[in-house]
Amino acid sequence: MFFERHQGGERAILVHLEGQDPEVREDPQEFQELVASAGAETMALVNVPRHRPSAKFLIGSGKVDELCDLVKAEQAELVIFNHVLTPSQERNLERAFECRVIDRTGLILDIFAQRARTHEGKLQVELAQLEHMSTRLVRGWTHLERQKGGIGLRGPGETQLETDRRLLRVRIRQIRQRLEKVRSQREQARRGRKRADIPSVSLVGYTNAGKSTLFNALTASEVYAADQLFATLDPTLRRLELDDLGPVVLADTVGFIRHLPHKLVEAFRATLEESSNADLLLHVIDAHEPERDQQIEQVLAVLDEIGAGEQPQLEVYNKLDLLEGVEPQIQRDAEGRPQRVWLSARDGVGLDLLRQAIAELLGDDIFIGTLCLPQRLGRLRAQFFALGVVQSEGHDEDGDSLLSVRLPRVELNRLVSREGWQPAEFLEQHTLQ
């Protein structure tokens, strides 16, 4: 690997800039949670009032001297900025502090590196890290930036720094090719699900909103869920059975965060396409979070960036157990369609309402009617009963079964087609609405 990755447990000084434009200002509490998720030990949080960032250090030279003394006093091994640093600012600060300096992007990348479990996830993280570190290679090779002349010192025409950059480009190209293969495999799987008329539902939302807890509660799975940022990195898909609708595929995806590094969005495009190709997005929102409106805006911004901004959405206000006086409920729009659901994934309260809302939104084309099945179609009759869609049964004077059914039209078409009938032709001859 061409770059170092710090291990957990390091003594860190945190630097947060105040007084900036609200559009780019970061949240200090979220910053501390990110540092805790990375496993660093916070020795001090320094708030720096800075309206005009300096090109050399980002912060003023007086504050740099103050931080130098603090680093020595606390014996800190790491200084983390809650802001994006340029490569030159990072190098200048490291020379001043005589310890390693990383910015917000580097911190998020490190958390992702710790969380990656699958081969695909590790490739995506490595791609984002390599692209981030490629501009910072000079830090590690300052003594090899220039070729030296003289007898015995003439090189092969390429400095060590140039060699590393070339090798980085080769590795990045290899990873992109592998991820493109993953992307095509995912697309093939999605096409297979569409051919089988199985709708897909994707969980999206701000990090630590409770997506994995909700996923586990709905599907009886054991996906890793914890009260920390970016607990989920690798996407997980499970089958979910819904009344009146049948099976759907539910996907748990990586959480979003404000100012999510663009390199990370690009690297995780293959994973995030599960959301952009879903039939319905469940936007999970932490109902107890004071800044939930800002978090909603950040999620919508990332969805627009990955091309999923126009997908149908159902808002899921989670963590109802932390609120007082709010009951589980479905809120509807002017047309009576479900718009948001209030529930508690941890306590399992309101999950039935969520299933009902999903079925309503995905099951617009529900068939309700009476089917006339000849006796020779006894196997088809048994399949309707096995699905639990038969509401009542009678018989006509010829002994044919009259089944009153309620089920998705795609499921009806699938069953009828198995018997060698054209669905429309079958329904026209044998259905009484």
TrEMBL record:
Its main location: cytoplasm. It comes from the Bacteria. This is GTPase HflX. SUPFAM superfamilies: EF-G C-terminal domain-like (SSF54980), P-loop containing nucleoside triphosphate hydrolases (SSF52540). It holds the Pfam family GTP-bdg_N. GTPase that associates with the 50S ribosomal subunit and may have a role during protein synthesis or ribosome biogenesis. Residues 165-192 form a coiled coil. One of its GO terms (molecular function) is guanosine tetraphosphate binding. Monomer. Associates with the 50S ribosomal subunit. The keyword Mitochondrion does not apply. It is found in: Cytoplasm. Its cofactor is Mg(2+). It comes from Zestomonas carbonaria. One of its GO terms (cellular component) is cytoplasm. Mg(2+) binds at S212, T232. GTP binds at residues 205-212, 230-234, 252-255, 318-321, 344-346. Keywords: Coiled coil, Cytoplasm, GTP-binding, Magnesium, Metal-binding, Nucleotide-binding. Gene3D superfamilies: 6.10.250.2860, GTPase HflX, N-terminal domain, P-loop containing nucleotide triphosphate hydrolases. Residues 199-366 form the Hflx-type G domain. Belongs to the TRAFAC class OBG-HflX-like GTPase superfamily. HflX GTPase family.
